[in-house]
Amino acid sequence: MRKTLLFVPMLALFPWIACNEQPASPTAQGGDYQELPPAQAPALQAMEGMLTKVDPAGKMIWIRTADGIESRFSYSDLTLVAGADNTVEGLAKMNGSRVRIRYTVSGAGYAAEEIEILSGQTPDPAERIPGDRGR
Question: pTM score, two decimals?
């Protein structure tokens, strides 16, 4: 009789224990498990034009493309610079130079990741005479 009295309360707890048991992970169950790919860095885009302005205090630079559109880019201490003493501060002395900027697009605008000086002082591409091939 005592054995029966101990067994009945254990039966009453069984559904509660079964409901509160955590499911095993997919790898523990031997089921299909796919690892998610790591988050990818945003793809870099590129733009070429003439450097028109550098704002070291605001960490911004502006370029004008051949079609006359002026674009603004933010930069940081991590932005790579090729030419101009390899620093963004060196760019401040290079207004009018042709540059290529590799950048990402974010909610705040264009963020320059790499800035490359392509040449020294060049004519403004927006002021090029139609039919003139840079002679």
Answer: 0.57
Q: Which residues of 69-93 are buried (b: 16+ CB within 10 A; e: fewer)?
A: eebebbbeeebebebbeeebeebee
Q: Which two tokens stand for residue 50?
A: 């003439």
Fold topology of 45-122: OB fold (Dihydrolipoamide Acetyltransferase, E2P) (2.40.50)
Alpha carbon 107 to chain centroid distance? 11
Structure confidence by residue, pLDDT tens digits, 89-121: 778 888 888 999 999 998 878 999 999 988 765
How would you class 103 by CB atoms within 10 Å of its CB: exposed for 0-12, middle for 13-18, buried for 19 or more?
buried
